[in-house]
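User: Could you walk me through two proteins back to back? I'd like the raw sequence and the structure tokens for each, with a short line separating them so I can tell where one ends and the next begins.

Assistant: Of course. Protein one, sequence then structure:
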Amino acid sequence: MHSNSPFSLKNKQVFVTGGAGAGVGSGICQAVDDAGGSLIIGSTSLQRAQQAATHYRDAFAVGGDVSNEADVEAMFETIEANVGPVDYLVNNAGIGLSKPVDETSAEDFDRICGVDLRGVWLMSRSYIRSCLRDTRPGAILNISSVHAHSTIPRYSTYAGIKAGVEGFTRGIAVEYGPKRIRCNALSPGYVHAEQNLELIGTWADDPAEWVKQHTSTQQALHHEIEAIDCGRAAVFLLSDASKCITGQVIYVDNGSTSMLYNSDFLT
């Protein structure tokens, strides 16, 4: 990509938490790399982060738990000591939960809230402090989910926490816009990965068939969403191409949240 393009991330350090996996985070890492950005890949496992970093140009790996305050502060200190300050932050690290509320333990809640909401808060706080310290502009992208908009049985807790992420996104945008820090959220629909089949098995007898039917009946566009599709939207929301966009939630969902009825009902 030409360095003068508003979509370019050349000379920008982009910290992607949860970037060592095979899901949305991998698509974001690939798109950032394609756009010329310098990746900082975070994972709870430093070894996994280091392995993922080998797939990209000049990527730096860091290990730590986003739900742990000391780990978060240590990650930022390590990054600044080795590659300099973080220009853009992508809060991608997250875990799922498929359980009815009455079967969900306090430990279940604390675990998912710790990673998916507290982690976003801790990471954003450290990042914002570094921007304010250096009077640098910045951009945060929080990865939410279509479940914050419309959900299914067994996902009440997950949906509520992701709705919290979107509310926090709007709050950061308003609070720190005057400091030239933007904050948006990206809400993917169903992005297929083989690792999802086990989770789908908690509500579907045939997970592979569920994926096939979801693609053909529960989306306005009848093709699968790929991780790179989310990545390209992420690059847009981080880059100068979106310099007037903040406090927004962008859905990469093939139109699923816009549908009132599924396609089978309408034919």
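----
Protein two, same layout:
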Amino acid sequence: MDKFDSIRPYNDTEANNVLIDLSNNRRFLKMLFTTGEFDQIRYLPFSRKILSYLLKKRIKNIDSIEKYQSIFEGVVLDVIKKSITNFTVSGIENIDSNKGYLFIANHRDITLDSALLNLSLHQNNLSTTYNAVGNNLLSEKWASDLMRLNKSFIIDRSDKSKKDIYQSLYLASEFIFNTITEKHESIWIAQKQGRSKDGNDFTDPSVLKMIHLNGRKRTPLHEYLNNLNVIPVSISYEKDPNDLTKARELFLTDLNKKYIKEPKEDLISISEGIRGHKGNVSLSIGSQLNFLNDSYDAAANLITDKINELYKIHPTNIAAAIIQGKEIPANDFSENDLDAAIIYLNERMENISDEMQPYFLDQYSNSLNR
């Protein structure tokens, strides 16, 4: 038994059996029907059995993670075609195919942030990443299976004893280190726990403490991070399909000092993020960072600054600031672009109360604070 079995992604020998299990999973089949992709059979008698049969035919020859990811590539390309106006990528030339990297990224969408990076890597004949995912997203077994098939590994955020939490985080730290330095494969991890819901991207020092946990007693922080070949990544969406739900969460958190998610709220956010229109999307990959001291705060600030430098501003960011009466930075957007963005934001705000609207607009305008 491998010591990483409890957190690692599935491997080639497991892929087909997991896919067969998914094809038989009633909850997974029910979820697929809600996407609208199978409306032609949804209302037929024995629709679930029919869909299960079709899925099994499609996956019968998938016997490796690479073959599964080739199908997943088609899914991501379809998402781009249907929900993104223009997808631009910069900085791919910063990646050496012979090295493993620790990609530390801002986090705006639960699944697409890493998926769009991996699509870009794959299209440039570079290895895709192993992706850190919190176990709070894995309440449904089918969701866990899909993520682990797609090279995700688990960061355990459960409410356990301090000893159990330490052991879980230590194991994740060790997995990250071994993957990059021994297998020369890459890791994607968000700069802080959870998505940025208010438009402010910052690196949480506790994430770096977790990453360093495996080597804390023997290797200084700057040396440890430099061994992991840290690359900052910044992604920006012109339109966020989850902006209204994020505004609601922020408003209720301020109102009640605590926000309790509804059951399956994260899964709904995943679905909305994938299907909803996103306008223009920009992915910026930075150069490898060089760390010079052993302060977690200083290292976090360096990563934050680089991610913010890479962030691409969209008309919606400027439009939100205009509506709020905030200072507008110099930009090259046309008057028509900004007018269209103002109309779009105002139409979105018709769906929420007046009290929530500042939270909605801050998501976009706060991205200018860089």
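The mean pLDDT is 93.

Let me know if you want the two compared in more detail.
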